[in-house]
Amino acid sequence: MKVMIRKTEKGLSAYAPKKDLEEPIVAVEKEELWGGWIKLKNGWVLGLPEMPADTKLPVTVEAKKLES
């Protein structure tokens, strides 16, 4: 699923346009974010693709839903 990752004043958030859902990111597997999983406040766990650690935000990526 396409997900836009962006920084907000409260931290990182993820927006899934097809679901019209924006949720804060509450946990990350890797500090640099890319190539690991992220957990959203609603309980979803998404796998992110490998990308350079210095990737500028906001960015839209193809994420894989691992849990819900």
UniProtKB/TrEMBL annotation:
Superkingdom as given in the UniProt entry: Bacteria
Database matches in InterPro entries: NifT, NifT/FixU_barrel-like_dom_sf
GO terms classed as biological process: nitrogen fixation
SUPFAM superfamilies named among the record's database cross-references: NifT/FixU-like
Transmembrane segments: none
Name of the protein described by the UniProt record: NifT protein
Lineage: Bacteria, Pseudomonadati, Pseudomonadota, Alphaproteobacteria, Hyphomicrobiales
